[in-house]
Amino acid sequence: MLSCKLNDGNSIPWLGYGTGTALYQKEASNEVKTAIEYGVTHLDTAQVYENEDAIGAGLKASGKPRDSVFITTKFYPVDNGPTPSLRQTLLNSLEAMSTDYVDLFLIHAPYPLNERGELKSTWKEMEDIKKDGLAKSIGVSNYRVQDLKEILDGATVIPAVNQIEYHPYVLDTAEEIYKFCTEKGIRLASYSGLTPVTSAKGGPVDAPLAAAAERLSKETGKQVKPANVLTKWLLQRDFIVITTTSKSSRITEMLSIPDLPELTATEIEAIETEGKKYHKRMWMHHVFGEQR
Ligand SMILES: NC(=O)c1ccc[n+]([C@@H]2O[C@H](COP(=O)([O-])OP(=O)(O)OC[C@H]3O[C@@H](n4cnc5c(N)ncnc54)[C@H](OP(=O)(O)O)[C@@H]3O)[C@@H](O)[C@H]2O)c1
């Protein structure tokens, strides 16, 4: 699978299969096993999904070795009461996943660390986790520019990744994060990238997505769908793409997206111009001070 370089020299496969959203708090070992069997080499989970054990069980059932997959998990700071030791939560995650390291450990959200003035001290704990080899790379998720600036001040390790909600309907608010991370060498990973064809169907990007899908279908002789165009757009914007599906045929479809012909500058401009006409955020409204 196509891999991308991180700022610490490690590589990350471009497509990650997630056990959140549709699989949130569900037993997911069969889905993980199927994803691996269909060629997925990057698994994305989190402590708050309460199904990290599916990663170890799915990997074991696939018969593949640990180093054949890139595993991401995320630390979830509790928002009432004292945050348990970050290191202890990771040790619990490793035990659940039957592994002794993760490839990438993320802080799931800046909230409520920012409210408690703990952004910097938590990042220091992350740096120690990397130093001790419990995580090969460390990063953040849902961090805004102000959160990133705060941890970069005094950091000895720059976050390798910021995993954020990214699709054409958050361009108005996500663009400054995109620019800042790109400038600082922090690789962006997108989640909920298919929102315009799932929860926000019928919006202004439908037309440019359909037009590009039709052009690519004619050119390749295969049926290219609007969802595939969205994923191609994310790839051309240099994103790692975190998605999920219950259908193995869609895994095969997703894995072939790097081989599709490139979207043209005109197609990209149409998607972005139409996207900016509508705002829809699926997650982390509180972090961005938005109403649901
Ligand atoms: N860091 C965070 O705060 C955060 C937040 C949310 C999510 N995430 C991560 O990102 C992962 C994915 O999130 P997401 O589910 O919101 O991602 P998404 O890629 O926007 O949506 C995935 C959904 O789209 C459907 N889908 C897939 N291919 C499709 C196609 N060709 N046409 C129409 N629908 C299609 C799938 O349903 P089918 O089963 O029908 O294919 C699946 O349920 C999560 O599992 C989690 O790991 C992280």
Automatic annotation (TrEMBL):
<feature type="site" description="Lowers pKa of active site Tyr">
    <location>
        <position position="74"/>
    </location>
</feature>
<dbReference type="GO" id="GO:0016652">
    <property type="term" value="F:oxidoreductase activity, acting on NAD(P)H as acceptor"/>
</dbReference>
<keyword id="KW-0560">Oxidoreductase</keyword>
<dbReference type="InterPro" id="IPR018170">
    <property type="entry name" value="Aldo/ket_reductase_CS"/>
</dbReference>
<feature type="binding site">
    <location>
        <position position="108"/>
    </location>
    <ligand>
        <name>substrate</name>
    </ligand>
</feature>
<feature type="domain" description="NADP-dependent oxidoreductase">
    <location>
        <begin position="21"/>
        <end position="272"/>
    </location>
</feature>
<dbReference type="InterPro" id="IPR044494">
    <property type="entry name" value="AKR3C2/3"/>
</dbReference>
<comment type="similarity">
    <text>Belongs to the aldo/keto reductase family.</text>
</comment>
<dbReference type="InterPro" id="IPR020471">
    <property type="entry name" value="AKR"/>
</dbReference>
<dbReference type="InterPro" id="IPR036812">
    <property type="entry name" value="NAD(P)_OxRdtase_dom_sf"/>
</dbReference>
<feature type="active site" description="Proton donor">
    <location>
        <position position="49"/>
    </location>
</feature>
<protein>
    <submittedName>
        <fullName>Aldo/keto reductase</fullName>
    </submittedName>
</protein>
<keyword id="KW-0521">NADP</keyword>
<dbReference type="InterPro" id="IPR023210">
    <property type="entry name" value="NADP_OxRdtase_dom"/>
</dbReference>
<dbReference type="Pfam" id="PF00248">
    <property type="entry name" value="Aldo_ket_red"/>
</dbReference>
<dbReference type="GO" id="GO:0016616">
    <property type="term" value="F:oxidoreductase activity, acting on the CH-OH group of donors, NAD or NADP as acceptor"/>
</dbReference>
